[in-house]
Specification:
Elements: H1 3-10, H2 13-41, H3 49-74, H4 82-98, H5 104-127, H6 133-152, H7 163-170, H8 179-197, H9 199-209, H10 211-216, H11 221-247, H12 258-269, H13 280-299, H14 305-330
């Protein structure tokens, strides 16, 4: 019996319930406390509709890519290629529009299909070749970096980007709400409905909970795992496209940093509302914590390196809370 199990046996039922509630709501409590503290310390700059809208708008791309990663993690795998893939997609979508003259909708459709294809490749390597997902997706991601440099020669694709492409990310087509926020809500809402309210969502959760039992129940486990990678790949492609639109260029490493942000959001989210389970709502809350934490640091003039320290610390704490919640659920 583990030390955790022995400790839990010595705890009263009331204490266990209190600890379980804390594990579920600690991240939300932390978010509220952080918002309150920043609002008190900077009442003129922080607690404004404009600032909150700007924060969510800036975080929307990280939320989209993290939402896709959540699906891969739910089925029990990790996708380390997403940041590199998003960077490649940003380069490719810009190149398709500028160099090859594709209409913007057609270029975006090609990129989303490319994202799905990368997901299929990741999924096949993991399920058929039986390569560990960390190694497989890291290898694929490295290949994608090479392809990005090969296509762009390492130089940003800037000249000739049409204004309509800028407006994809920077526009406000619906009630004055930034397009990225609208797209993020649609993507996360769609993923939530898929996982929580559909029959295939039940299969996704079954595979993530116990692949052997899912296989005995007649679920095609490999197909579900590949689906998780495909959705992760499509969200990475969409993120790269929107980032290229926001920047007005295709840059080889523009989205690389989204990898750490996405993982921090996903694991922090697994400690939210559920006992160590990965889910879309939790990922959204985790991304909000990271986004508002960065925003507060910027408002108070903290140096750039502090953001990296905060993000790394959040990831460590998130994994720790996730593990604690899972252990408490099992005991």
């Amino acid at each position: 019996m583990s030390d955790t199990a022995l400790a839990n046996r010595r705890l009263s039922p009331e204490t266990k319930r209190a600890l379980s509630l804390f594990a579920r709501y600690a991240t939300i409590i932390g978010l509220v406390m952080m918002l309150g503290a920043f609002s008190i310390l900077s009442p003129q700059a922080f607690p404004t509709i404009g600032n909150f809208t700007n924060v969510i708008n800036q975080a929307s791309l990280a939320m989209i890519i993290a939402g896709g990663l959540t699906l891969a993690v739910i089925v029990g795998e990790l996708d380390l290629s997403i940041g590199f893939a998003a960077s490649l997609h940003g380069v490719l979508v810009t190149g398709l529009i500028v160099r090859h003259g594709l209409p913007i909708p057609a270029a975006i459709a090609v990129i989303l299909l490319a994202g799905a294809l990368i997901g299929v490749v990741n999924g096949l390597i993991v399920t058929k070749a039986k390569v560990n997902s960390v190694i497989a997706t890291l290898g694929v991601g490295t290949i994608l970096v090479g392809l990005s440099f090969a296509y762009s020669a390492g130089a940003p694709i800037v000249a000739g980007v049409p204004e309509a492409f800028f407006q994809l990310s920077l526009g406000r087509w619906l009630f004055g709400i930034p397009n990225n926020i609208v797209i993020m809500v649609l993507v996360l809402g769609g993923l939530w409905l898929l996982v929580e309210k559909s029959a295939i969502g039940q299969e996704i959760q079954a595979v993530g909970g116990n692949p052997a039992a899912a296989r005995l129940a007649g679920i095609n486990v490999d197909r579900i795992k590949i689906l998780g990678f495909v959705l992760s790949g499509v969200c990475a492609a969409l993120t790269g496209t929107l980032l290229a639109s926001r920047l007005g260029s295709g840059t080889t490493s523009a989205a690389d940093s989204y990898l750490l942000t996405a993982f921090a959001a996903v694991f922090l989210g697994s400690a939210t509302l559920r006992d160590g389970e990965f889910h879309i709502v939790g990922t959204f809350v985790g991304a909000l914590i990271i986004a508002f934490g960065f925003n507060g640091l910027n408002i108070f003039g903290a140096p750039t390196y502090s953001q990296y320290i905060l993000q790394g610390a959040i990831l460590i704490v998130a994994v720790g809370l996730s593990s604690l919640g899972r252990q408490m659920a099992e005991n």
